[in-house]
Amino acid sequence: MVSKKPIMSSRDNILASINGIALEPKALPEIPDFQILGEITETFIQSILGNKGEVSSKEEFEAWLPETKFSKIISLSAHFPDFSTLSLPEDPHELEDLELAILDGQFGVAENGAIWLEDANLRLRALPFITEHLVLVLNRKDLVETMHRGYDRIGSAESGFGVFIAGPSKTADIEQSLVVGAHGAKSLRVVLL
């Protein structure tokens, strides 16, 4: 009786060949300790401005908002709880004509102006993307220098959703024509406390 050798699939042959290659183990590269040049708050402000965003103090924001004449506002910010003219609906489709959302950011990254938001701040994931204009409220003490520090701060926290937002929605084509507000908020204003 002749024994049949099991037939290996192409996938198994490829994986067996790869596993048969003798490689010397290599240490992971050292990640340098990146530092920003200058003061962290000023670097963050310049990054936001470079991303086509705006930065305000609390007083400047409180003076600016009445001038806008926005009638459909949702504020989930602990610092501006009375600015809402709408309540947060269950169905995000009801927000299709939302003019302004005011949200608290958890922390900001100075090197690129990115602000971290997660479910605890949003309550409705579509909110920062469906609104016409977005205001993110952030305390200066919650600024970190680099994305490396930002990811360290996120750590292994478990959240159903998280996003970095670094400016208004924008897109550009091959002709280098920049369009702001193409598929999200037309403007981003950061209120630094």
Percentage of residues assigned to helices: 10-25%
Give the name of the CATH architecture.
Answer: 3-Layer(aba) Sandwich
Please give the largest β-sheet: 5 strands, parallel
Strand content: 15-25%
Give average pLDDT, whole number.
86
How are the strands of the largest sheet arranged? 1-11-6-3-2
Radius of gyration over all CA atoms, rounded: 24 Å
* CATH 4th-level superfamily: NagB/RpiA/CoA transferase-like
**Number of self-contained structural domains:** 1
Name of the top-level CATH class: Alpha Beta
Q: Strand tally, please?
A: 11
CATH topology: Rossmann fold
Point out poorly predicted stretches: none
Helix and strand sequence: HHEHEEEEHHEEHEEEE
Brief account:
The chain is an alpha/beta fold and 193 residues long. The protein has helices at residues 10-19, 40-50, 58-68, 119-122, 127-130, 147-154; strands at 54-56, 73-75, 100-104, 107-109, 115-118, 133-138, 143-144, 162-165, 170-172, 178-180, 187-192.
Layout of SSEs?
Blueprint: H1 10-19, H2 40-50, E1 54-56, H3 58-68, E2 73-75, E3 100-104, E4 107-109, E5 115-118, H4 119-122, H5 127-130, E6 133-138, E7 143-144, H6 147-154, E8 162-165, E9 170-172, E10 178-180, E11 187-192
Parallel strand pairs: 1-11, 2-3, 3-6, 4-7, 6-11
Antiparallel strand pairs: 4-5, 5-8, 9-10
Describe this structure in words.
The mean pLDDT is 86. The chain has helices at 10-19, 40-50, 58-68, 119-122, 127-130, 147-154, and strands at 54-56, 73-75, 100-104, 107-109, 115-118, 133-138, 143-144, 162-165, 170-172, 178-180, 187-192. It has one domain: Rossmann fold. It starts with 9 loop residues before the first helix and ends with a strand. It is of the alpha/beta class and 193 residues long. Strand 9 and strand 10 form a beta hairpin.
